[in-house]
Each structure stands twice: as structure tokens, then as C-alpha cells.
Amino acid sequence: MDDHAYADAMPHHDLVIIGSGSGNSLLTPELAGLDVAIVEAGTFGGTCLNVGCIPTKMLVLPADRVVAAADAARLGVAFDPPRVDWPAIRDRVFGRLDAISEGGRAYRQHQQSTTLYEAHARFVGPSRLSLSTGEQLTADRIVVAAGSRALGLDVEGLREPDPARGLHTSDTVMRLGSLPPRMVVIGGGFVACELAHVFSALGVAVTQIQRGPSLLRHHEEVIAQRYTQVAANHHDVRLRTSPTSAVHEDGVWRVHLDGDDGPTHVEAEVVLLAVGRRPNGDRLDAASGGLDLHPDGRVVVDAELRTTAPGVWALGDVSAEHQLKHVANHEARIVAHNLAVDLGRTAGPSRRTDDRPVPHAVFGHPQVASFGATSAELDAAGTPYVTATQRVGDTAYGWALEDTTGLLVIHADPAGQILAAHCLGPHASTLIQPLVQAATFGQPAHEVARGQYWIHPALAEVVENALLGLPGQSR
Ligand SMILES: Cc1cc2nc3c(=O)[nH]c(=O)nc-3n(C[C@H](O)[C@H](O)[C@H](O)COP(=O)(O)OP(=O)(O)OC[C@H]3O[C@@H](n4cnc5c(N)ncnc54)[C@H](O)[C@@H]3O)c2cc1C
Ligand SMILES: NC(=O)c1ccc[n+]([C@@H]2O[C@H](COP(=O)([O-])OP(=O)(O)OC[C@H]3O[C@@H](n4cnc5c(N)ncnc54)[C@H](O)[C@@H]3O)[C@@H](O)[C@H]2O)c1
């Protein structure tokens, strides 16, 4: 077959989407009727649904219940020690999520206008893809929504996950057959903190290894320190410590460490690697498609989320600065709109990403939620700002909670525009939202605090009081 005849035989689609996570939500009514292909190398539905946000949060909930039951003694209520039924906890989560993933896959498989290729895609030319099944595709438009992957550690024994021998990443640890007696969690970031909380609350003896001076170290310092103190009350936290090698013998991992205490080691049946995630741009042969990459593997995009290759867009973890699902979802909405504009199906203009504050939450114990710069970052940038710190325990609902650790820090410019907020404590992920709203829409602190009623004596009074505590705000 000559080249031309081969090209004629090659499937051609109006639109190819690489990745079925946030990429799967692109297909809005404006794009109906297009001949679309979705290429998915892994489990349909991507990280958030199968191995990320949703299963972790569904596991955090029973863990929170265990911690709350133990804590109830301070309120005069004593429970018997909990009986943790791990298979029931695990199967509640994946009984629901696996069915959603399979339902989504079946829907796309049977949808007339959509072809689902279960394969790994890479570029072999402009608008041309080669699949791990041997097929090649061409497309008028391509969306790269290929996500990111968990990293191993460049340390002997810890380079690659090996779930069969108990060396996991977040991709596999949530599906353990049974709870191990001991677990070493390597890392002090989002994944490590959430899953150390889950497994330690459920009765596993967790040792968490963090090379830095605190857990969650990119957070506001007071919050990182307080989070670290609380975590250390629940499980063994080793700071300023790094693994130097690991060996597996008779079903037990011996992880050698070096740090403040000199060389030492820790043993466990399960090791969780939680040392960051790398964008999958480096596995796409991006250059062959004309896509530029940042040094960290992210696909380069402009404000309209176009890559450097004509007709190719990218979104989510593979290109975004923040590896967060609400960011990927927002970007999917932008790309869907911009595709529709490009196709003449929707009036322009194209939508652009903007500099709205990006909040996040860590669903550990306690919860942490944050957006905007830390005081260290504001100081380093020479930005003028004022700060208020409100303890949860100094509000009426905080008395009800007997809270001793929660706090909310707000940074604002001297005129009262909210720049950042950092919160630790019960429901921090929800509590911070009015501040995200105020910062996003430019509402000044005093207007937010005094321009509305705050339900008394709700936890939200923490926000009201923090706003009123900003220097220059009259009560
Ligand atoms: C344990 C954990 C907990 C998390 N919790 C939260 C949270 O609470 N809140 C939050 O906002 N974020 C959370 N995140 C981050 C969030 O999951 C991601 O930001 C989000 O899922 C990214 O979506 P995406 O569509 O960019 O990528 P993904 O959902 O990862 O989708 C990419 C898909 O592309 C496929 N793929 C990759 N390369 C190719 C290829 N070459 N060919 C074919 N297919 C390919 C992959 O198999 C994958 O299915 C969490 C992440 C983890 C790991
Ligand atoms: N609740 C949420 O929103 C949520 C939850 C989980 C993950 N995520 C997203 O996924 C991303 C990845 O999460 P993560 O926890 O894997 O990454 P992370 O960047 O949050 O934390 C990585 C941790 O690994 C440590 N580390 C990195 N390299 C190391 C090395 N060589 N030796 C020892 N320690 C090392 C770092 O010090 C850090 O503590 C997050 O940044 C976040 O965007 C979000």
C-alpha cells in the first residue's frame, strides 16, 4: 500500500480527545453531531473519579468519624473503640465509583457519534496520532486532556511502585485487600496527608516521612506547623528525613532513612509513595505533533488553551499550573466553548483563562483550605498587606466544638481587598468559600462582613470575625 492509500484507510475524526477524565466532559450540546473519538489508556473516567478526589474523600469520611468518636470524650460522650470493617469501607467507595466508570465507558462505547479507543496515544505528526493498538488516527481538532501520573522516588527500592509486594502509590493503595498492621507514607503533601489520616484513623500504625521541616510546607507557616503538630499526635511523623533505600524481605519493607536523627530505619508491610505527580506531556511525543512542553512536562498553552500546534488544545493536569479537578473542569468548559466558536457553532469571542484566585483544600485531619499568597510570599514580593488571624475556639461555635487548633488567617491589601485566606479546622473547605467569592468579585472586607447577616452562632462567624479583625475595619 502506498503512503496515500494508507492515509485514506486511516480513521479520521472531527475531534479526538486524549484522556477520558475532564476530557470526557467536553462534549457539550454545542458539539453535538461531531464525529468524536476518545482515546483512553487507563480506566475510563480518569484520576478524580477512579483514584483521586472522590475515593479519597469517601475514605476520609469514615476516618473523620473515628477521630470524632474518640474526640467526643472531651464533650462528655464516650464510645467503645471502633470496629473498622475495611472491606465494607473500601467496597462502599468502589462499588459506587467502579459502576460510574463502567457506565461512562459503556455510554461512550455505544454512542453513535463517538468512538472509544482503549489505547495509549502519541503524536506521529501534525494532527496525527499513533495508538498502542497499532492504529493511526487523524483529526481536524485534538484536545489533549492526558492528566498526570504519580511519581516514584529516585531511591534504591522505591523507583517504581510494586503493589504486589506492598509498594503503592495512590493509584492502588485505596484498594488494599486488607489493612496492614503498619504503613510508611513517604511525602508531606496533599496525597500523603490525606491518606496518612485515613489509614492511621482506621487503625494502621502509620509513619510519615517528610524531607522538609513541616507537613504541607507550601502553606501559611502557622497552618503548616499546626497541621504537623496535630498529625504528630495521631501518628509517627518524621521531619527533615528522607529515605535512602528500601528492601523487601519476608513480606516486610525496611525503609532506610537519613535525617535529623542520623541514619535509622522503619519497617512496614505497606509503603505509600506520595511524592508528587508529573504531567503526562512527556509521554505524548508532543514534538512530533508540534506541541511545545515546559521543562516539567506540561504542555504549553495560551490563555485560550490552544497549544503551539494549530487545531490542538490542552487542559487539566497535563498543562495547568494547578493539579486540581475544579481547575481541569473550568478549563474543559473553556475548551468546549472555544471549539464551538472555532467550528462556527457558537458566537465568539473565545473564552480565556483569567487570574481568579484558585482555592484548594486538603482533606486531612484537620482540614486545611487556602487560596492566594502566604505571608512569606507577600513579604518576598514586597506587597503591602494587613493580616487578621481568628481562632475557631474564640467563636461561639468553636466553644461548642471545644476547638483548640482551628484558625483562619486573612491577608488583605491596606484598602481592605482580600488577597488570600488560609484556614485550618472543621469544615475549612466549606468555610473558606465566602472569602473565595469576595476575593474573586472584588468585594471589600468590610462590605462582606457588615453588608449581610451571619447566622449566629454558626461556624461562619469565624469568617465574619476574621474580616472585622483586619486592621482598619470598623466593627
Ligand atoms: C489521590 C488524589 C486525590 C486528589 N484529590 C483532589 C481533590 O480533592 N480535589 C481536587 O481538586 N483535585 C484532587 N486531585 C487532583 C485531580 O484528581 C486532578 O487534578 C484531576 O483529576 C485532573 O484531571 P485531568 O482530566 O486533567 O486528568 P485525568 O483525570 O488524570 O485524565 C487523564 C486521562 O488520560 C489518560 N491518558 C493519559 N495519557 C494518555 C495517552 N497518551 N493516551 C490515552 N490516554 C491517556 C489517563 O489514563 C487518564 O484517564 C487528586 C489527585 C489524587 C491523585
Ligand atoms: N485535596 C486535593 O485537592 C488534592 C489531593 C491530592 C492531590 N491533589 C493534587 O495532586 C498533586 C500531587 O499530590 P502529591 O501529594 O503527590 O504532591 P505534593 O506536591 O502535594 O507533595 C509532594 C510531597 O513529596 C515530597 N517529595 C517530593 N520529592 C521528594 C523526594 N525526592 N524525597 C522526599 N520527599 C519528596 C515533597 O516534599 C512533598 O511533601 C497536588 O499537588 C495537588 O495538586 C490535590
TrEMBL record:
<dbReference type="Pfam" id="PF02852">
    <property type="entry name" value="Pyr_redox_dim"/>
</dbReference>
<protein>
    <submittedName>
        <fullName>Mycothione reductase</fullName>
    </submittedName>
</protein>
<comment type="similarity">
    <text>Belongs to the class-I pyridine nucleotide-disulfide oxidoreductase family.</text>
</comment>
<keyword id="KW-0521">NADP</keyword>
<keyword id="KW-0285">Flavoprotein</keyword>
<keyword id="KW-1015">Disulfide bond</keyword>
<dbReference type="InterPro" id="IPR001100">
    <property type="entry name" value="Pyr_nuc-diS_OxRdtase"/>
</dbReference>
<keyword id="KW-0676">Redox-active center</keyword>
<dbReference type="InterPro" id="IPR036188">
    <property type="entry name" value="FAD/NAD-bd_sf"/>
</dbReference>
<keyword id="KW-0560">Oxidoreductase</keyword>
<dbReference type="Pfam" id="PF07992">
    <property type="entry name" value="Pyr_redox_2"/>
</dbReference>
<feature type="domain" description="Pyridine nucleotide-disulphide oxidoreductase dimerisation">
    <location>
        <begin position="358"/>
        <end position="466"/>
    </location>
</feature>
<dbReference type="InterPro" id="IPR004099">
    <property type="entry name" value="Pyr_nucl-diS_OxRdtase_dimer"/>
</dbReference>
<dbReference type="InterPro" id="IPR023753">
    <property type="entry name" value="FAD/NAD-binding_dom"/>
</dbReference>
<keyword id="KW-0274">FAD</keyword>
<feature type="domain" description="FAD/NAD(P)-binding">
    <location>
        <begin position="14"/>
        <end position="330"/>
    </location>
</feature>
<dbReference type="InterPro" id="IPR016156">
    <property type="entry name" value="FAD/NAD-linked_Rdtase_dimer_sf"/>
</dbReference>
<dbReference type="InterPro" id="IPR012999">
    <property type="entry name" value="Pyr_OxRdtase_I_AS"/>
</dbReference>
